[in-house]
Design brief:
Blueprint (H helix, E strand, L loop, with lengths): L1 E7 L2 E8 L9 H11 L1 H8 L9 E6 L8 E6 L9 H13 L6 E7 L2 E7 L4 E5 L3 E12 L3 E9 L3 E5 L11 H17 L12 E6 L8 E6 L11 H13 L9 E4 L5 E8 L12 E17 L18
Parallel strand pairs: 2-3, 4-5, 10-11, 12-13
Antiparallel strand pairs: 1-2, 1-15, 3-4, 5-6, 6-7, 7-15, 8-9, 8-15, 9-10, 11-12, 13-14, 14-15
The site of pyrrole-2-carboxylate has 12 residues, from helix 3 and helix 5.
Length: 321
């Protein structure tokens, strides 16, 4: 299986170029279902130890349904599949450029949660235009074991996020264990208390915010991903969810740049436009189209192999005993 590894603002992406499973010709959502049903071992083979690690997001490159799209993609991680992935889209963009399949300019991409587009500005800088993002609930308070009452917003940016008003501790690498444990406790509490996204989806990404360390950034974040790893980048779908909340609160105007710093100090620049400038009758929730800019770098072009005698040929999976 041929893979290309990249990182986007520190967060790794592994794109499967050749040798991935054949998922048929359905929509990306249908192909993702088939990937989950029939190829979970392949998912684990690609991203889990000993070939990968918990922070890697995998991207299975697919033939798009719409020939005008540069590609179709299914994103996955150490425990399952995810909807959209902002940093992964930037990683995929520079990977396709590395392969000579695309050049600078505008391109479209099919994902299981809708079509997105990206602009490859040069070999490393990519702007993505995400799917419509929105805040579903604001100022929700929940009881969390060990933390007490936690208040935040639920928003969709291609994955479901809980965006906490306060952080339990400073947002830096010294506090990673506390940040991770607190965010995991919030994710567990949301699930246990039956709190879901609008479509019934699991709220499996948790965000904390604090003051930026660099003068020209507006905010610093910590994002916990579903498999327990933290996002080294500011998280593209998480920054989209944040844009939706800022827009809903009237704290950020359309086309205004927002610089989101990550817990490792890397950054995305983001702005939005309204998805539905005139809200249709009865449509209560304003949606935004986020545009996120970041930088990605190819770091390896290699092949994954397995031999029958290898006891961990399919990776070390969270569900394995
Ligand atoms: O950038 O959207 C993102 C993302 C999701 C999970 C990890 N990164």
């Amino acid at each position: 299986m041929r893979i290309i590894d990249s990182h986007t603002e520190g967060e790794p992406t592994r794109v499967v170029i050749e040798g991935g499973p054949d998922l048929g010709r359905g929509s990306m959502a249908e192909r993702r279902e088939r990937f989950v049903r029939e190829f979970d071992q392949v998912r684990s083979f690609i991203v889990n130890e000993p070939r990968g690690h918990d922070a890697i997001v995998g991207a299975l490159l697919c033939e798009p349904v719409n020939p005008e799209c540069a590609a179709g993609v299914i994103f996955f991680n150490n425990v399952g599949v995810i909807g959209m992935c902002g940093h992964g889209t930037m990683g995929l963009a520079v990977t396709l450029m590395h392969l000579g399949r695309i050049g600078p300019g505008q391109h479209r991409l099919e994902t299981p949660v809708g079509e997105v587009s990206f602009e490859l500005r040069d070999a490393n800088e990519v702007d993505i235009q995400n799917i419509p993002s929105y805040r579903f609930r604001s100022n929700m308070s929940i009881d969390v074991a060990g933390l007490g009452q936690v208040t935040g917003d639920i928003a969709w940016g291609g994955n479901w996020f809980f965006l906490c008003q306060d952080s339990p501790c400073p947002l830096n690498l010294k506090h990673l264990s506390q940040l991770t444990a607190s965010a995991q406790a919030i994710a567990d509490a949301l699930w246990a208390q039956g709190i879901r996204g609008e479509d019934g989806g699991r709220i499996d990404h948790i965000e904390f915010f604090g003051e930026a360390l660099s003068k020209d950034a507006h905010s610093r974040n910590f994002v916990l991903c579903p498999g327990g790893a933290y996002d080294r980048s500011p998280c593209g779908t998480g920054t989209s969810a944040k844009q939706a909340c800022l827009a809903a609160d009237g704290k950020l105007a359309p086309d205004q740049w927002w610089v989101q710093e990550s817990v490792i100090g890397s950054r995305f620049e983001a702005q939005y436009r309204w998805a539905d400038p005139q809200l249709a009758a009865g449509q209560m929730i304003p949606r935004v189209i986020p545009r996120i800019r970041g930088r990605a770098y190819v770091v390896a072009d290699s092949r994954l192999i397995s031999v029958p005698a290898d006891p961990f040929a399919n990776g070390i999976r969270a569900l394995d005993p």
